[in-house]
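ping. complex inputs:
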Amino acid sequence: MKKIITVSRQFGSGGRSIARRIAEELGYDYYDSELTNKVAEETGFDPSYIADAGEYAPGRSILSYALSNPSPHSTGRHMNAADYLWATQSRIITELAEKGNCVIVGRCADYILRDRKDCLNVFIHADDAYRAKRIVDLYGVRDKSPQKRLEEKDAKRSVNYKYFTGREWGKTENYHIALDSSVLGSETCVKIITEIAKETES
Amino acid sequence: MKKIITVSRQFGSGGRSIARRIAEELGYDYYDSELTNKVAEETGFDPSYIADAGEYAPGRSILSYALSNPSPHSTGRHMNAADYLWATQSRIITELAEKGNCVIVGRCADYILRDRKDCLNVFIHADDAYRAKRIVDLYGVRDKSPQKRLEEKDAKRSVNYKYFTGREWGKTENYHIALDSSVLGSETCVKIITEIAKETES
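pong. complex structure:
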């Protein structure tokens, strides 16, 4: 039985909904925006800023940031606002994982909890057509095309993950299970993951 | 019900054994070295050359080859021995898939059959310690360290896949399911994949 399920996901893949359903099925706590708010409270940052920063890092664009700042994996630099947020986020995720069985969405939780043996790390992705339809259904039409919105979100998550973890986002080897929700269907994804969580030794 | 299961795998992950077990469970044909021999017969190449070429491309090292030759995705170049092998391999895999339900290991079958809706594309990976132990158990000790053997094989498969498909090997989005056999165990992998193959619509 795995006690912690971390769920990373492509934007529009339905990974967040799948994560919530897994938590329901297993009777686990579920952390997502709650986590954001908790970080916001503790650090004194504004919650809407944190919601962004969880994916995009500091105040300006993550791309310009990542290009102009050495990664935390480099040495010889001072802690900035993004690092402070990261340190706080890491501590909170570690504490939540110790508190009890839970499902944690995003926030590099797979990396933060990498030394625990009781984590199941999941990645949910889907093809572009499925994701484009889903974000328009959920969030409505915007000036930018759905394709553009997907590309931007993916690029941001990828750069953020690389910046903080030194790893490639969406590489199979970072996850124990990666599933295509557009081919398998959300409910099949929920079923597979809950079964594996129950059957796999910690 | 998915009629074709393609299995790509990291060296030493046990992906080939998992593929064979899936074929047994589903009562599907299984293609691996048989496929190699069939290509060899048809092209007149020596079978041992083909076994290598399936992963490493032409006579000299794939790395030097890939660096000095434009990919088939470029235009304006003539067909060479590797391309001829690729064309033959593509045709044979397409024909085998049309012949009946089967499991196909490696050989970029996921890419070659990408337009079929009845394929389930699987990737099996495992952590380095598990793979290193497994290759020593299976193939014995060599002059090169197990770690070095893993790195070289992975690099070759990755370059080969990129050369012929234009895609990144081991990226989650190329597969419907990616599983870590070192954490989940081989039999759990077999079970998950056979269940999904049965339950997913073509």
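Residues 146-165 of chain A form the longest helix (20 residues).
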